[in-house]
Amino acid sequence: xxxxxxxxxxSREVLAKANNxxxxxxxxxxxGFLTLSxxxxxxxxxxxxxxxxxxxxxxxxxxxxxxxIKGADIERFTLYLQRVxxxxxxxxxxxxxxxxxxSDFYAxxxxxxxxxxxxxxxxxxxxxxxxxxxxxxVRLECLLASSPTAIYTLKPEGNLAPTYISxxxxxxxxxxxxxxxxxxxxxxxxxxxxxxRLVLQRLELPxxxxxxxxxxxxxxxxxxxxxxxxxxKVVRGREGQPLEIVGAWMDITERKTLEAQFxxxxxxxxxxxxxxxxxxxxxxxxxxxxxxxxxxxxxLMQEDPLxxxxxxxxxxxxxxxxxxxxxxxFSRRQIIQPQALNLNGVVADLKKMLRRLIGEHxxxxxxxxxxxxxxxxxxxxxxxxxxxxxxxxRDAMPIGGRLTLETANIDxxxxxxxxxxxxxxxxxxxxxxRDTGEGMDAATVKHLFEPFFTTKxxxxxxxxxxxxxxxxxxxxxxYIEVDSQPGQxxxxxxYLPRLEEPPEAPRTRMTLAAQLEGTxxxxxxxxxxxLRTLLCRFxxxxxxxxxxxxxxxxxxxxxxxxxxxxxxxxxxxxxPQMSGQELADRLISLHPEMKVFFMSGxxxxxxxxxxxPDPSKPIILKPFRPMDLVRKVREFLDESRVK
Length: 643
Description:
Layout: H1 2-28, E1 32-37, E2 42-45, H2 47-53, H3 57-60, H4 74-86, E3 91-98, E4 104-115, E5 121-129, H5 131-146, E6 149-154, E7 162-165, H6 169-173, H7 177-182, H8 186-189, H9 193-202, E8 211-219, E9 225-236, E10 242-251, H10 253-298, H11 305-330, E11 339-341, H12 343-358, E12 362-367, E13 374-377, H13 379-395, E14 401-412, E15 416-417, E16 422-423, E17 426-435, H14 442-446, H15 465-475, E18 479-484, E19 490-499, E20 521-525, H16 529-541, E21 545-549, H17 552-561, E22 568-572, H18 580-587, E23 595-600, H19 604-607, E24 619-621, H20 626-642
Parallel strand pairs: 12-14, 20-21, 20-22, 22-23, 23-24
Antiparallel strand pairs: 1-2, 1-5, 3-4, 4-5, 6-7, 6-10, 8-9, 9-10, 11-13, 13-19, 14-17, 15-16, 17-19, 18-19
């Protein structure tokens, strides 16, 4: 009996000790514990809960927990408490609790319903202080919100539905995060059909590496496809098992646009160099054909059948020369003579010609800004732009319509993006050419300025009209923009830098000679044999004493031996051994009386390595008719004599 009492006493002591340990653990657990009635009244609380709420434990008993809840969260807590007693299992909730001193903290409540004394129901609730976690989360959300990158996570099992996506996805593509989270196939359906297979292949598991990057087009809320850069990384556990896939999403549409513009510019530059080189060499051949054609024509009577043949040859060469000029304009190797001018004057001069060109079935409207600024450009090239655009507009309106030319001043404070390039901020004069024709789709507009690209049927266009316009605009340091849609006409806007100086007065030159004949001595220096021979024949035909040289070295030797006067040297600028300007400089000491007249088929920018001639010196631009050279030489010699 005594032994039994001893064992019973020991058992009670062990049980009491266990209860004390349990009580201590309950009181000093790292989380707060509460027992709540169905109405949310606190029935029990441990010391941790009292510490969290900064109130004596006894004062908590009998108080409703909602008295410790921030006003904005009370309604949420009421609904939460109902859910706890209605649903089995532990129910979580994040809420903000306040203390008697007015301070507050973020808490996570985890509650489970149970049976109390008698018929009453209670719930056991744990309180975890998540203030630090919430502050970190808020900072992270602020950081993500200010970032141009949207962050998302995927399950490693291959489910394509994101498990999380940051709020700034709305700013990125205009879509709500919940739209991605609720529908597993939502985002993949918005990937561009041409890119969808690539995306699906990249997401197939297992991945060959832990990180992947790829780019694809995604349909934004506004109906436009945006280029997205997607960077994904696998987060693995200690044993290497994939736990989560984290992705970073960035809009790279602007970069892609700039890349496309750069590639287009490179392509245009490469084609332009080829076209310009071919055109320059072809000019010399054309000049020879034109010159000999003129010689044949001058030796025939008009009644001779061969006379008409020579006329046809000259017409064909003139058309070929016009074609090479277009190629040079496209490649920006056309020689120009820019001057300060007012576009209103150029448009006014072309008005009558435009009316004849477009026909009576098309109305012509000109809207000119009375206070239009000045631009520096070649007036002939501006006319070429207008005529080319007018021809295209006419062909787009076969049954009639309206062609509008408008000039205006425009100040750009921000960069203005076209489909080709960005127009930098600045002061511009804008020339707008608008038609009400058939219009063009986006694919056509994309290739519009490529050489030999045309939408016209065979035989109606060379495909050089708009490339010529583009080349001229760029050569005059301008920009061009196109807006067009099928059935809604087309609008071409040309931006040229605006100057402060007034336009120049028209240049006039008087021909002092009544005839082209002369007796002066002329030295012709040209490395193209056929062209040099032709020019010498023309000068001799009109009575001049002609000396000829194939290059600078030969010309120097000839001039050293020449004792008589050389009145004029006609020389090409770009030649082997030495340039025309270098040759002229070296001959000054030998023949100081000699004047110099230059020929060239290159623009000033291409002449720089060869020593561009003095701007005050006369120059004739290839291709030209030999008769025109004789006429200009005669004018120059007569003007020099008067001076």
